[in-house]
Amino acid sequence: MSDAVTAIKGFADLFPPESDAFTRMEAVARDIFFRYGYRELRTPLLERTELFSRGIGTETDVVQKEMYTFPDRKGRSLTLRPEATAGVIRAFVESGRNEAVSKFFTCGPMFRYERPQKGRMRQFHQINCECVGPSEPWADAEIIVMAMRFLSALGIEELTLHLNSLGCPACRPAYRNELSRWLSGLDPEALCEDCRRRMITNPLRVLDCKVPSCREHTEQAPKILDHNCPDCAEHFAVTRRLLDAQNIPYVLDHRLVRGLDYYTRTTFEVVSARIGAQGTVAGGGRYDGLVAQLGGPDLPGLGFACGMERLALLLPAGADAARPDFTIAVLADAARDAAFALAQTLRDAGLRGDMAFAARSVKSAMRQAGKSGARRALLLGEDELASGRVVIKNMDSGEQTSVPLAEAARHMTA
Predict the structure, then answer these.
(1) Cis peptide before 71 (omega within 30 of 0)
(2) In whole angstroms, what is the distance from residue 411 CA to residue 129 CA?
(3) Residues 40, 41, 42, 47: is their CA dihedral positive or negative?
(4) How far is CA 176 from the centre of its chain?
(5) How far is CA 354 from CA 73, 329, 383, in A?
(6) Euclidean distance between CA atoms 86 and 88, whole angstroms
(7) Beta bridge partners of 387
(8) pLDDT in the model for residue 414
(9) Residue 53: enclosing H or E segment and its boundaries?
(10) What is the pLDDT of residue 271?
(11) What CA–CA distance (Å, rounded) separates 293 from 50?
């Protein structure tokens, strides 16, 4: 039996080309989010457990069942972050920042103890955006437009935007009470075990259950949009008007309540039908009470998160390929120094590629060049060294030409 140490279940190693896809997603995120004034924030993986129980909600499934929580050597309860928003707001409050509007994005791993499946791991990766300060619906529309622009820039298609408004502390309690009364009239056996618990602790989450029998029996449940106060209704109407003006289609989804307690007013999810039941690839909304709840000033906020593993499943074929510009095939030991120098020259010119450190026959060298996926193969042997030239072969067309070594970079970048 092998004594090799293996990875933990639900924690995956990402080799190329999978890791290339993650690198590309992060690069596109930085490009798009920078245009909207977002700056990158890096927060710790480990936080005090209290942050999540206060921020996310003690009765949520995340806090109840999914967090990696443990005591440190001083007996303090610590948790690997299960989501990013609470940590970003903690950092914002602790920093004492006082800008009228603060925009941050983060990229990195999160941790939840749940059953690993396609697109969902126990260590998973998210891209998050958080905006603290604005209360106006123009901020809601902007962050949704930005999320859709980001997904479009990745080349992901066939997505559906779902919208809802969860109201505010002035109107949601009355809806919660009415929903509780309506749910109490159902046969408890018609609902799953989780929903029977949620009926008491967090009735809105019953609407979000994915169990078919639960969805069937709650189809006629009261809709929260019918119970929004005038201010919430107007806020949502403006958000929708702005999305309509940007030609962004959406569906109103009365079941959309999200899984975390801090959401208020506008909530949204972007869903794909191509990756099964767990089809949400991005989601978020407004969380106007969270900053104050975590000890900061009473500032509104909103944000969203994208699951990178799920996005990777939807990227167009070949979108994750970080194809090298060149590979240098060394055909004789005497040519290795020249190949080494040429590789540095090409990289200095902005090209990506590699060289073979060992000399090979032409047949073997070209076989390796094909495996590399490089766009061009450069061949250097004794004949080329003597003439001061290099053979450049286009690996797609098969066309090849001989150019002076000193002009190789110019030829490659022309």
Answers:
(1) no
(2) 42
(3) negative
(4) 31
(5) 47, 9, 21
(6) 6
(7) none
(8) 83
(9) helix 49-55
(10) 94
(11) 12
How many Å apart are CA 390 and CA 402, to the nearest integer? 6
Query: Cβ of 305: how many Cβ atoms within 10 Å?
Result: 21
CA angle 43, 48, 54 (to 5 degrees): 100
Spatial neighbors of 212 by CB under 8 A, at least 6 apart, are none
Structure tokens belonging to residue 167: 């109201």
Please count the residues of the chain.
414
Q: Is 358 helix (H, G, I), strand (E, B) or coil?
A: coil
Positions of the chain with pLDDT lower than 50, given as ranges: none
Give the 3-state secondary structure of 328-347: EEECCHHHHHHHHHHHHHHH
Say if residues 67 and 112 touch (Cβ distance below 8 Å).
yes
What distance in Å separates the CA atoms of residue 71 and residue 73, rounded to the nearest whole number? 7
Contact call for residues 392 and 401 (beta carbons, < 8 A)? yes
Q: What digits encode the pLDDT tens for the residues 11-48?
A: 999 998 889 899 999 999 999 999 999 999 999 999 99
Cis peptide bond upstream of 17, omega within 30: yes
Query: What are φ and ψ of residue 162, in 5° steps?
Result: -105, 135
pLDDT one-digit tens code per residue, 121-138? 999 999 999 999 999 999
Q: What is the pLDDT of residue 361?
A: 94
Q: What pLDDT does 277 receive? A: 65
Centre a 10 Å sphere on the Cβ of residue 404 and count the other Cβ atoms it contains.
12
Alpha helices in 305-405 (DSSP H): 308-314, 336-348, 362-372, 382-387
Measured between alpha carbons, how far is 141 from 94 in angstroms, rounded to an integer?
A: 28
